[in-house]
Design goal:
The protein contains 4 helices and 5 strands; from the N terminus they run ααααβββββ. The chain starts with a helix and ends in a 6-residue tail after the last strand. It comes from Rhinopomastus cyanomelas (Common scimitarbill).
Length: 177
């Protein structure tokens, strides 16, 4: 991350604490985002979209229903991320905005890098084969891929709104397109 981007995100963290939620914690948000990413990615992989109603916005859920039904099994398997397989997480963009009705929102884009053992071809663009683990002899190899995903979390901070984060964008490059 560039120093300017790091400084910008820290500035937005300060604004969130000052104007929206004095108890906002980047570490706690990141832990929750990782857990939500793991749960949602597994449910997507299992095609259990009806269980995503409370976690994902209706617009995103509608798009996912169309895309998931067209995915080959190996791409669907590659969507799933165990929380222990998340190698790196970082914030992308943070936005604070108001709608035409004066409602207040905060949106945080999170980027995840995770290992997955799905049977993907070696030439899948947008991912990197990290290593092969050899158990026993040379004939038994387990291939792992380092995959990326972007999930955007949004919360309304208008007085009286539910204090819940909702996923408003899900991207698994080269897998869910």
């Amino acid at each position: 991350t560039s120093p300017l981007a790091w400084l910008r995100t820290r500035f937005y963290h300060l604004l969130i604490r000052l104007y929206f939620d004095p108890e906002f914690s980047v570490e706690e948000f990141t832990r929750g985002a990782k857990q939500a990413f793991s749960v949602v990615s597994k449910l997507l992989s299992q095609r259990k979209l009806d269980l995503l109603d409370e976690l994902v916005s209706a617009e995103v859920l509608q798009v996912l229903k169309e895309k998931i039904s067209l995915l080959p099994d190996n791409h669907r398997d590659a969507l799933a991320a165990d929380i222990d397989a998340i190698m790196y997480t970082t914030e992308g963009d943070i936005r604070i905005y108001y709608d035409d009705d004066g409602r207040k929102f905060v949106s945080i884009l999170m980027r995840f890098w995770y290992l997955n053992g799905a049977d993907l071809p070696d030439e899948v663009p947008g991912e990197t084969k990290v290593f092969q683990i050899v158990f026993g002899d040379e004939s038994t190899k387990e291939k792992r891929h380092l995959l990326t995903a972007n999930y955007e979390f949004r919360r309304e901070f208008t007085e009286g709104a539910k204090p819940e984060w909702t996923i408003t964008r899900i991207e698994h490059p080269q897998l869910l397109e």
